[in-house]
């Protein structure tokens, strides 16, 4: 049993990745960029949204970000929250585990998602890309969350879906569980636990 469970957000807690991909494709097309495949969009993921748009659109990035946020907010009408995931978080609370989010998203998009699903009260700490010097795969977000939670790295686990999550967890000295229930990924290198369903995740966290 872990004292703290840290969750990635996109593709881990909620299946937001398809919607985010569509919004990226929309803004890149709207502002005259070349058409992007799903794979092209996913290759951009990692930095915060404003960093990506600044790199790709230069001085126009604030306008692009505003358009993206409109699409992102509206896109939540197509999303749903897994009842199994919600139940698991309530169970973890009941067992006394502290919960946190560590995401590479910016605060605006993080808050849109948490507020839409009424999740903010479930988490003791929320760390976004704006709160740390560098996002995952650097360990700063995890270390910041652990400091705020007053939990040692040996008593914590990160649940995430990407190699950035795995590498950040290893760098921070915490256990990691790769979740593939929303976005199936190939096995990742090095030692880690894998959960292909939320039921398996529950077993790894509670049994």
From TrEMBL:
Membrane-traversing stretches: none
Domain of life: Bacteria
GO molecular function: phosphoglycolate phosphatase activity
InterPro entries reported in the protein's UniProt record: HAD-like_hydrolase_sf, HAD-like_sf, HAD-SF_hydro_IA, HAD_2, HAD_sf, PGP-like_dom2
GO cellular component, one term: cytosol
GO process terms (BP): DNA repair
Pfam families: HAD_2
SUPFAM superfamilies, A to Z: HAD-like
NCBIfam families given in the database record: HAD-SF-IA-v1, HAD-SF-IA-v3
Protein name in UniProt: HAD family hydrolase
Lineage, highest ranks first: Bacteria, Bacillati, Bacillota, Clostridia, Eubacteriales
């Amino acid at each position: 049993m872990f004292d703290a469970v840290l969750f990635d957000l996109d593709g881990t807690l909620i299946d937001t990745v398809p919607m985010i991909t569509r919004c990226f494709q929309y803004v890149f097309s709207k502002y005259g960029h070349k058409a992007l495949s799903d794979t092209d969009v996913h290759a951009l993921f990692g930095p915060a949204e404003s960093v990506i748009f600044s790199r790709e659109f230069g001085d126009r990035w604030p306008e692009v970000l505003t358009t993206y946020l409109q699409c992102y907010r509206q896109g939540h009408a197509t999303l749903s929250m897994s009842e199994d995931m919600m139940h698991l978080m309530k169970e973890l609370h009941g067992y006394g585990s502290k919960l946190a989010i560590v995401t590479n998203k910016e605060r605006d998009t993080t808050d849109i998602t948490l507020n839409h699903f009424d999740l903010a009260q479930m988490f003791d700490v929320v760390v976004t890309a704006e709160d740390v010097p560098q996002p995952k795969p650097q360990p700063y977000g995890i270390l910041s969350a652990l400091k705020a939670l007053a939990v040692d790295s040996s008593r914590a686990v990160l649940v995430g879906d990407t190699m950035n999550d795995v590498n950040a967890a290893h760098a921070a000295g915490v256990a990691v569980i790769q979740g593939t229930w929303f976005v199936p990924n190939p096995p990742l290198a090095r030692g880690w636990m894998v959960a292909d369903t939320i039921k398996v995740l529950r077993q790894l966290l509670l049994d």
